[in-house]
Design brief:
Number of helices: 7
CATH architecture: 3-Layer(aba) Sandwich
CATH superfamily: P-loop containing nucleotide triphosphate hydrolases
CATH topology: Rossmann fold
Helix content: 25-40%
Order of helices and strands: EEEHEEHEHHHEHEHEE
Strand content: 25-35%
Distance between the termini: 13 Å
Bound molecules: adenosine-5'-triphosphate, magnesium ion
Length: 223
């Protein structure tokens, strides 16, 4: 269960003005749910996902994940929380450029404390159809392949919560559907909670719950 309780996020723009990016957003995501977050560019989707992952802290309000408040936790406790609970697929992949596809996935497996990290990383790469690209550096992969490596990295530790920011944004429709099949299959296998941001209405339709953000507020779908 992910509880977003009256969460606001304000950034200071480079010119010094307050940017109210999320405004008193409240949302309850039951364990095992699949949720699509939609909304125009700049509406706060990535910011909200980042707050659920504890990658950023809210200006006001609280984020509670599986009964534990992650608001105000220190960096060390937060990294432990993320390693045990979360798989995160970033909008811009964030692969380590000097490490191969396999190493990028292995590092996540090692951080999660998995035994046999190499074998598990290879298995995760195989699940996204990239076993033959294991030794490639990110610069030697296409955009869609980088996205699939990022997905393999997110699923390698079989986390109970998967947060994905436009995980199919640079994939062709066939591969996008494939990645979606995989996400939904993993979600079922693990009984995981899957929250994803997507601009693709067809793919969003395959999720159980739908949230729409506009200008930092939920305009449809809040519990
Ligand atoms: N660190 C930051 N400092 C200042 N402003 C920020 C920061 N991060 C995000 N913003 C602003 O917050 C707003 C929401 O950003 P966010 O990335 O959450 O949008 P989004 O809904 O994910 O958009 P997209 O669909 O384009 O990815 C944007 O207007 C952005 O410029
Ligand atoms: Mg975004």
């Amino acid at each position: 269960m992910i509880s977003i309780r009256s969460v606001s996020k304000t950034f200071t723009s480079p010119s010094g003005e307050d940017l109210r990016v999320l405004q008193e957003v409240s949302l309850e995501i039951p364990a095992g749910a699949s949720v699509a977050i939609q909304g125009p560019s700049g509406s706060g989707k990535s910011t909200l996902l980042g707050l659920m992952a504890g990658l950023d802290q809210p200006t006001a309000g609280e984020v509670v994940v599986n009964g534990q408040s992650i608001t105000g936790l220190g960096e060390l406790a937060l990294s432990r929380f993320r390693a045990q609970n979360l798989g995160f697929v970033f909008q811009a992949y964030h692969l380590l450029p000097h490490f191969s596809a396999l190493q990028n996935v292995m590092i996540a497996a090692e951080i999660a404390g998995l035994a046999g990290a190499g074998a598990k990383a290879l298995e995760a790469l195989a699940r996204v159809g990239l076993q033959e690209r294991a030794e490639h550096l990110p610069a030697q992969l296409s955009g869609g392949e980088c996205q699939r490596v990022a997905l393999a990295r997110a699923i390698v530790a079989r986390p109970p919560i998967l947060l994905c920011d436009e995980p199919t944004g640079s994939l062709d429709p066939r591969n996008a559907d494939r990645v979606f099949d995989l996400l939904l299959e993993l979600q079922r296998d693990l009984g995981a909670t899957l929250v994803l941001v997507t601009h693709d209405a067809h793919l969003a339709g395959r999720m159980g719950l739908h949230i729409t953000l506009e200008r930092g507020r939920i305009v449809a779908g809040a519990a």
